Amino acid sequence: MGRIETEAREVLLRRRRSLFIDETPPAGDPAARWSDYEFATDPLSEVVRREVAAIDEALLRIEQDRYGSCQACGGPLGLQRLRALPEARYCLACSGNVPGLE
Ligand SMILES: [Zn+2]
User: What is the distance in A from the centroid of ligand 1 to the CA of 66?
Assistant: First the structure.
């Protein structure tokens, strides 16, 4: 794992942790999945859910050694972009050309 991956992984894991108060389901209810209650009353739930998904995808790409490449054109995302947005999926050119992409 390269330096940028290590760095990004730490940032992503820290942000992921900050999105959850507690990642474990409540005691006494083994059937409960955290996704069912964690966001139940949170108006930001959809935003948080999407951010967690983006973070998880980035972490998966790091593990699979695919991190840092644009998902659209395959080109490098660039160090600056990864530092600013560790979960970025597309390079600046692609994110500007494809509507709806970050
Ligand atoms: Zn691209």
Answer: 14
